[in-house]
Design brief:
Shape: globular
Order of helices and strands: EHEHEHHHEHHEEEE
Number of helices: 7
Helix content: 40-55%
Radius of gyration: 16 Å
Mean pLDDT: 91
Low-confidence stretches: none
């Protein structure tokens, strides 16, 4: 459903007040629309407690920051021979980010999530971590195409990805107007 910034903030605030259940949300839009929303609307949004929300975590940057330079260099050099080791390391760091961030705040917003999809990381951790007073909001560059969510739609078709069906409940998925 396409909504204005204000409508999305209202829907999000309403959902943040629900203490039990699954709490994974996604906002879709172009990179420009997501950046505008983050700057103009998300920065003004309030949580269930009336306090401003924490700024989004740039997931790509945070994942790379957590891997020491020497380890990263070795992973890159051996990636072609051992792609699973890169994938496993990123998955472990991704889960640590979720756990640590949700321990620090009841709502974690993630942006710049390309590495998750580039390495085809398992996304079910988002659903299992975003429950019972722990909320996860994804800012996803994408659009709705019928029943499918096409991610990275502004890139060449070879780079497009599909958001797994039923990852984010329909009433927790919003698309920015414009």
């Amino acid at each position: 459903m396409k909504l204005s910034d204000h409508e999305i903030n209202s829907a999000l605030r309403e959902r943040l007040q629900m203490p039990t259940g699954r709490h994974l949300y996604a906002i879709l839009g172009s990179y420009g629309a997501l950046e505008r929303y983050e700057r103009a609307a998300l920065s003004q949004a309030l949580g269930a407690n009336g306090e401003p929300l924490q700024p989004p975590i740039n997931l790509n940057r945070e994942l790379l920051r957590r891997i020491p330079d020497e380890d990263l260099k070795e992973l890159v050099q051996n990636e072609a021979r051992r792609p699973q080791s890169v994938r496993q390391r990123l998955a472990e760091e991704f889960d640590r980010i979720l756990v640590e961030s949700l321990d620090a705040s009841p709502l974690v917003t993630l942006k710049q999530v390309e590495l998750l999809f580039a390495y085809d990381l398992e996304l079910n951790g988002l659903r299992t971590r975003g429950v019972n007073k722990k909320h996860i909001l994804l800012l996803l560059p994408g659009r709705r195409d019928g029943d499918r969510i096409t991610l990275f739609h502004e890139a060449s078709p070879a780079c497009h990805r599909t958001l797994p069906a039923n990852l984010v409940p329909e009433n927790h998925l919003w698309e920015l107007v414009g």
